[in-house]
């Protein structure tokens, strides 16, 4: 009974209607749920990656502006690393 309820909830969330009398509907439903979870997880990971990347780009641009340009920024970076 719990499996039937879980499958009904999954069908309602996915919005897909299967034709009745489908012998392998349970395995198809579980496969489609796995596929949707995978897509959602990948989308979330890509979104987080974009946010982190844009944050790094903003930090780089702000550092360039506050240090007096690209040459001053890299001169200060190399001085801090002990290369000059």
Q: What does this 3D model show about the protein?
A:
- By secondary structure, the chain is mainly alpha-helical.
- 81% of the residues lie in helices and 0% in strands.
- It has three helices and no strands.
- Helix 1 (2-14) crosses helix 2 (25-67) and helix 2 (25-67) packs across helix 3.
- The longest helix has 43 residues, at 25-67.
- The radius of gyration is 26 Å and the shape is rod-shaped.
- The mean pLDDT is 79.
Topology summary:
Elements: H1 2-14, H2 25-67, H3 70-81
Helix pairs in contact: 1-2, 2-3
Topology, number of strands: 0
Distance between the termini: 73 Å
> How many individual helices?
3
Order of helices and strands: HHH
Q: Can you tell me the residue ranges where pLDDT is under 50 for at least 5 consecutive residues? A: none
Strand content: under 5%
- Multimerization status: single chain
Which percent range fits the helix content? over 70%
The computed structural class is mainly alpha
Q: Specify Rg, calculated over alpha carbons.
A: 26 Å
Major β-sheet annotation: none
What is the average per-residue confidence, as pLDDT, rounded to a whole number? 79
What is the molecular shape? rod-shaped
């Amino acid at each position: 009974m719990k499996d039937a309820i879980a499958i009904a909830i999954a069908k309602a969330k996915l919005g897909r209607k299967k034709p009745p009398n489908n012998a392998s509907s349970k395995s198809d439903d579980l496969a489609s749920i796995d596929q949707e979870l995978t897509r959602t997880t990948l989308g979330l990971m890509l979104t987080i990656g974009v946010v982190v990347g844009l944050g790094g780009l903003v930090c780089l641009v702000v550092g360039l502006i506050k240090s007096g340009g690209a040459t001053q920024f890299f001169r200060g970076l190399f001085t801090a690393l002990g290369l000059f």
